[in-house]
Amino acid sequence: MEQNSLIISDGIYYPNVLKDIKKSKQHFQPIFEIFTNALESIKLKQSVADNGSIIISILSRQSMNADEYKLHEIVIEDSGIGFDTENFGRMTRFKDNRKGFFNNGSGRIQILHSFDTAKYFSVFKEGDAFKQRSFTLSQHYLSKNAIISAHKLEETQDSSTKTVVTLHGILNENDEHAYNKLTADGLKKALIARYMMEFCNNSEKMPTISITHYLDGEVLEKQSITKEDIPLRDSERDLEVHYHRLSIDGKEFEKSNRSELLKLTAFKIPAHDLKRNDLKFTSKGEIIPDSGLELKNLSAHDRLDGYRYLFMISGGYIDDRDGDTRGTINIQRRDQYKQANASHTNLYGEEYIFLDDIESEANSIITHIYPLIRARKDEKLKDIDKLKNMFLLNGETLRKLSFSLDEPEEKILEKVYAADSKAIAKKDAEIKKNIESIESLDTTASNYQEDLAKLTSDLTKAIPLQNRVALTHYVARRKLVLELFGKILARQLNVQRTGGRNIDEKLLHNLIFQQSSNSPEESDLWLINEDFIYFKGASESRLCDVEIEGDKIFKSEFSEEENRYLRSLDENRITKKPDVLLFPDEGKCILIEFKNTNVNVSEHLNQITFYSTLIRNFTKDKYQIDTFYGYLIGERIEPRDVRGYDGDFVESYQFAYLFRPKKVIVGENGRRDGTLYTEVIKYSVLLERARRRNDIFIKKLTEKRTLS
Fold this sequence. Notes:
The chain is of the alpha+beta class and about 700 residues long. The strands form 4 sheets. It has a 9-stranded mixed beta sheet with strand order 1-6-5-4-7-3-2-8-9. A 7-stranded mixed beta sheet has the order 16-19-20-21-24-23-22. The chain has a 6-stranded mixed beta sheet with strand order 13-12-14-11-10-15. InterPro entries: HATPase_C_sf.
């Protein structure tokens, strides 16, 4: 090669290579690339005298702001074999992996993406002579399809082999910010985090590694990496992962007999030295930052007895799938594979290992190795089981999904509901297909009855899932309402514990039917009677404002005597507010009164009677409401008190309430008398009844059925 010449590449067009191989997201990837080459160069030297050395210098300059530095250059020197003719020849070619160590030459592309120039100076031994070589790696000559320039080769008296790489001129603004903040200690931690597996595997042959940060030529900070800085393996296990292939119908994955043997290595590191628990791939001795693996049974920031855990998966299969952008592993998840190949119909027989399977096997082994982590998993499963019981989640759906330890409850529910929605959509498509199949039936055909029976069976199997999910949400909501009802009665709500006046009646009223509401269908009146939610009505509305289908039921004008009575004793009787009024049918009215849990209910027996009288006599003639049903609800109910106030009440021993079959509601001004049926019942009895009804629904929903 000519001195000071450009090295023009044949057979490859570098401008396209730089477009195809994207810049790594890791700011310090160029340092890692050169550091990896340094480690490999030292291994190739195979010196018995020492383990070699790597010296890194961070050269910074003071910026105009006294508190900030600006990176000038990074210099990385190693005592490896150097760029002899063979190694330099590989430098001039692309995807030449004959060097071993799984390299394909994409590292230099990352350097080109990040720095204006990378100047190389190398001393090597060739035959009996020592030579020195220098060249520059840069994008400056891309127009001539060259990335190497200023090549010089000459003999030297220096007998110490080495390579010195000087990085200068940061090209990316985001990188510049990161490099300006780079310190010796920060780079030390980054290298340990990246090369932990490499250092562990070669702890006895680990080179001397020093990092010095200079500011305007003066030493600012010095660090070194020794084997004492590297955590010891805590455990190591084989990890067998099987290949899978897509089934003929493209719906499921079938397990193959073929498998790959990987290795799972565990590190147990003091929490102050490891920021997060993680599961990573390692390729060619380097940890892959964005491995795409999820540690399922330990949340990122959990500490167990003061430790965090780092798990690494390695093996030849992983190394073979390291992408051109170093640090990316080309292994797909199952759903990615399905999506990418959705239009292909001839995939049956092609076998792959999927990220899901590696992840699942690794997490299974981890919980087996560490009882503390297994305990955390069991704790999470209990929490999921609580959600299952609270919201009546589909157990089959839960079994098919996976959840991380730190996954919030909201996300768990989102996953379950999304999976259920997909299942419903699939079933809906089947239902549509079955219904459309009716057109193909021929009633004159000999197999008509058989075809109809099959179609009916398929349709019957498809419909229940959709109904079940909708009904499950309906019943689950009721279950929550019942839980809240119970907590109010037990005075366990925060608002009840903070002192102040007793507001139990208000809480219970709003639970059952929101005050000032006129939408019974949105209420929880089913707690009293299932039918009540279907009637028109209002909650805590003034009598004069009560409407049926937009029409006020009370008269707007009254006779002189009626006015006198309604406003006598300094009252305005038609502004009184019954707790709940419902109108189930023409001429009928349901009145519900709630009493505080500390009130003796028997002292309020006449309240519903009085409201019934007002409704009977002061509503418009067209309504003629004369049949009333009253429910007086509280908690302090003494049957003897109730009967003492009104002997017409009778105890219903079987259902734990009192009732008065009939009370005359006096009709005035020519209106006939009406009748009132009344029940006096405890909140706790209503709660128990409602729980039993809901439990029957839940049992029906959750019991396993065998479809013939």
